[in-house]
Amino acid sequence: MEHQGIEVSYRESRSCPRPIFNVSSVLENDYRMSYKPQLISIGPYHHGRDHLRGMEEHKRRYLDNLLHRVGVEEENLLSEIRRREQEFRDCYWSQFKNMTSDDFIRMLVVDGCFVIEYLRICAGVYRHRLSGDPFFAILPINCLLFHDLMLSENQLPLHLLERLYSITKARDGGENSTTIRALVVKVLNFNFSYCLNFDEPGGNGIHLLDLVRKSLIPTNCKNPPEGKYSGINGIRSNRHLRLAGIQIRLKAGSKKVIDVEFKKGKLLIPKLVLDDSTFPLIRNFVWMEQCNCYNNNETQFTTYLCFLCDLIRTEEDMEYLCKKGIIVNDFNTNSVVVSLIHQISAGVTYDSSNTYLTELCDQVNKYCKQSLHTQFATFKDTYFSTPWTFISAMAVFIVLTLTIISTVFTVLTYYYRR
Predict the structure, then answer these.
(1) Contacts for 373-377 with beta carbons within 8 Å, 24 or more apart?
(2) Backbone angles phi, psi at 272, to 5 degrees
(3) Cβ contacts of residue 117 below 8 Å, gap of 6+?
(4) Strands of 136-227, DSSP E
(5) pLDDT tens, position by position, 169-200
(6) What is the CA radius of gyration of the chain?
(7) How far apart are the C-alpha atoms of 248 and 264, rounded to whole Å?
(8) Which segment, 110-114, 196-200, 201-205, is predicted with the most confidence on average?
(9) How many Å apart are CA 232 and CA 359, to the nearest integer?
């Protein structure tokens, strides 16, 4: 399946090789709103927006409480970040020339300390909550906050968060052995324990969302050697795969949603829960990969989404995967999910001949071309797909058998009479 879409380049002169992009500069008006924060702004892209100003007071309260608790002066934080202002500015696609140096630095400190303190409370590192704190007093607000923290436009550079986290560690030594990466993974595994499993990733990260993305990628998701495959255009729908004799089954025990496997005629797919938390997460992962932040070796979620797009062409395809327990759909109807998957995947670009699923797609396509598998599966689907077709087939078989027996006896009777 061929996917064409966004291509975004960045200024090579910048010190940050993977800048944080502004979705609004690329996507159409009716689609970009899916990436906009609804409750809180983190970082410069939405700083000062009218509908988000109500949370500025709460962010400031988090900062003041943190400074008082650890005994650090705000000016010390501002001075530390000011020395690296241009480095942090270069991590964003826009330069924000309308923001003065003081405003930019203060915004980074306030937003960064808020994120760190929020993660500490969620992870149980710091258990005291501020009186009247809306983020933990009202569950829907907490869910909305976490949703906004996972938006690609609502990000701070990870090395900024790591520096602020290091400076503001409690002096009692309780956090000395804890990294911000471990803190994030702990919070994620608590919030998504019903559907996902996160591991602390190695290597460098761009920002919080990138860290979350990497923590969901299994170690066995590797691309094939360059040039080994060519002309691989995905797979057919699950209806066609089943007609070709492929069994589509739930990969039990795996919470790495992209860890798809093909073995001995069985396509094994981990359970995917689609709801208001997981779907925006995947959507923002795909957007990051489409912004040329990564080379083709790191387009796992783009590849996975396009795999789902190939597999789910109709509502019937979606219904089958739901019945098998492969997809848990928390949206109203199957048509909504089918439409969303195709809407997002229609605007992506990647090299389908060099992804972590290329070899799997090649194996599946070769299996489908074996005529014996296809003929047997077609026969099975035609005569044994439902109890009624099975009964009808058996009735025909019995009538045909009785007819043959009757004919044989008639011939034998005629023969012996002679």
Answers:
(1) 373/244, 373/245, 373/246, 373/265, 374/243, 374/244, 374/245, 376/245, 377/242, 377/243, 377/244, 377/245, 377/246
(2) -125, 115
(3) 62, 63, 65, 66, 126
(4) none
(5) 866 556 666 788 889 999 998 888 878 888 88
(6) 28
(7) 11
(8) 110-114
(9) 9
